[in-house]
Amino acid sequence: xxxxxxxxxxxxxxxxxxxxxxxxxxxxxxxxxxxxxxxxxxxxxxxxxxxxxxxxxxxxxxxxxxxxxxxxxxxxxxxxxxxxxxxxxxxxxxxxxxxxxxxxxxxxxxxxxxxxxxxxxxxxxxxxxxxxxxxxxxxxxxxxxxxxxxxxxxxxxxxxxxxxxxxxxxxxxxxxxxxxxxxxxxxxxxxxxxxxxxxxxxxxxxxxxxxxxxxxxxxxxxxxxxxxxxxxxxxxxxxxxxxxxxxxxxxxxxxxxxxxxxxxxxxxxxxxxxxxxxxxxxxxxxxxxxxxxxxxxxxxxxxxxxxxxxxxxxxxxxxxxxxxxxxxxxxxxxxxxxxxxxxxxxxxxxxxxxxxxxxxxxxxx
Length: 365
Hints:
The protein is of the alpha/beta class. The protein has helices spanning 3-26, 35-45, 68-75, 91-98, 121-124, 130-143, 154-162, 180-197, 202-227, 244-250, 268-280, 294-304, 326-341, 351-355; strands at 28-34, 49-55, 79-82, 103-106, 235-237, 253-255, 283-289, 308-312. It has a 4-stranded parallel sheet with strand order 2-1-3-4, sandwiched between helices. A 4-stranded parallel sheet has the order 6-5-7-8, sandwiched between helices.
């Protein structure tokens, strides 16, 4: 081999060895707060992003405690995406401790949040904290403003998590991704954040978002058709109250024994009252959630004789299987509900008309 050829070969090898690092550096480093957002970012970002989720599949974002490694991950990120509406009580502290100053995407920006109906603080001991939370909410507004994005009020939920007294999301329901039409707002916000962080690939993000939005519309239509076969009078028991948007959008009535909390155990009196509600509300089946205390639902099944019809996914994707993507999770939940509650030959008896009335049932906090 000549000296010229040898030198050219060495240059070629050096370039090949450097290529993966260069490609990695060119990819937008995105950190999301939990797994559902991570999947959305991957769909919009495609090959141009590298995504990590602070709370992984089957993880509980309600009770998550950030680590020093999470602060380092944020410090090295190009973009941070989180839900907002007080869902991640720990996010504000993490952003502060990481000294992150980059682009923040609040995925729920632009959503008119659904209010929790019959928001009864007496039932879960939150009334005493209500005014304290309002004061803390105002304090957060005064001290935190990243890129004019409103991720306000995280201190409210943080207070609840720190003393493990419950998970007070305030009066607004943060689980907006449970309605596929609301999820389109998430996708648009993610698209815009990626474009701002990486304008060179704007066309790719626009095209990916357009494709993904069409997939959300298709899944929404499938779910509406599938769930139209469930009688409007049927009610569902789940571990915690995170299906309000799903209920309003798709006409399935959800009841939960412990409100929003994914930690608390209901008292004996509460369980007895819930058994009475089950008997009154035409509850036909109980459902586990992938991240809540399954013993509560198991106990209800034993006391009522109702079957446990499957597992629903609310705040986290599955580690594997059909619920390991956001759209897969939504389709999985719809199929499990249909299989347990649908009547053969049942036609749609105005589910959309009844869906918003369901807020009056079982959402007492």
